[in-house]
């Protein structure tokens, strides 16, 4: 009998809690309606779920909701459609509750830290020529090229940004590097200006490229075209 009374008490408590929650939700909605009454409102897209930096605009629809907000709190240039964002990606993480604006999006190149007007070129390299397979997206490298006829070597480009590193079968190598070096060739994509791209392609076609890790504080002085005679000095 006591157990039955306890059970009835628990059920009653649950029902009261449910009713209370329903009344609270109704009150909040009513308060929102009263707050908006007489206010001029506009439709805006609002972030519903976190959208990570780099997400393509075409992939964010499921993470958005349309919401009516008073004009006075609508963000300037708030969007009602993702159409103006075509071809762009999120420049930063977009958090739930914020209104969707175009200024939070950028081109894929700029999102990777690539200056406007830069080109991207991919070269196939043995792991030993790509820092033992340790290079990763975002690294800064120097590009050295060697030729056999005549036998010359020269560090031709400095502080070139790596925008992608993959194995020959297309698998992206993640950061940080770990485990043994890949056995197959690596596909390394570099961001360069047009004249530098010509040098990279020529070096890959007619010679051998080597990439060296070269952070911004690296000393670039003292380089020159190296020959067998020069190395033996």
Task: Please give a structural write-up.
By secondary structure, the chain is of the alpha+beta class. The mean pLDDT is about 85. The strands form three sheets. Strands 5, 6, 7, 8, 9 and 10 form a six-stranded antiparallel β-sheet that branches. It has two domains: about 40-110, Type Iii Antifreeze Protein Isoform Hplc 12, CATH 3.90.1210.10; about 120-230. The chain has helices spanning about 1-35, 110, 195-205, 230, and strands spanning about 40-45, 65-70, 90, 105, 120-125, 140-150, 150-165, 185-190, 210-215, 225. The chain contains four helices and ten strands. Helix content is about 25%, strand content about 30%. The radius of gyration is 29 Å and the shape is elongated.
Concise structural overview:
24% of the residues lie in helices and 28% in strands. By secondary structure, it is of the alpha+beta class.
Topology as H/E string?
HEEEEHEEEEHEEH
Number of strands: 10
Helical element count? 4
Nearest-angstrom radius of gyration? 29 Å
Mean of all residue-level pLDDT scores: 84
Q: Per DSSP, what share of the residues sits in E-state strands of 2 or more residues?
A: 25-35%
Q: Estimate percent helicity.
A: 10-25%
Shape: elongated
The major sheet is characterized as: 6 strands, antiparallel
Structural class: alpha+beta
Distance between the first and last residues' Cα = 103 Å
């Amino acid at each position: 009998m006591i157990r039955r009374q306890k059970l009835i008490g628990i059920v009653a408590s649950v029902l009261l809690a449910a009713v209370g929650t329903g009344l609270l939700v109704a009150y909040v909605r009513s308060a929102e309606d009263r707050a908006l009454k007489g206010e001029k409102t506009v439709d805006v897209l609002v972030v519903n779920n976190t959208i990570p930096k780099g997400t393509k605009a075409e992939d964010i629809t499921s993470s958005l909701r349309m919401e009516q907000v008073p004009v006075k709190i609508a963000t300037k240039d708030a969007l009602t459609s993702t159409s103006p964002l075509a071809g762009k990606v999120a420049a930063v993480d977009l958090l739930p509750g914020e209104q969707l604006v175009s200024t939070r999006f950028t081109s894929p190149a700029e999102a990777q830290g690539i200056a406007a007007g830069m080109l991207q070129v991919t070269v196939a390299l043995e792991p030993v020529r790509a820092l033992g397979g340790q290079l990763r997206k975002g690294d800064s490298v120097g590009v050295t090229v060697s030729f056999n006829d005549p036998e010359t070597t020269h560090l031709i480009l400095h502080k070139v940004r790596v925008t992608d590193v993959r194995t020959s079968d297309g698998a992206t190598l993640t950061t940080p590097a770990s485990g043994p070096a890949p056995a197959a060739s690596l596909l390394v994509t570099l961001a360069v200006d047009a004249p530098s791209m010509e040098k990279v392609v020529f070096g890959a076609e007619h010679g051998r490229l080597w990439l060296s890790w070269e952070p911004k504080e690296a000393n670039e002085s003292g380089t020159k075209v190296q020959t067998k005679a020069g190395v033996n000095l």
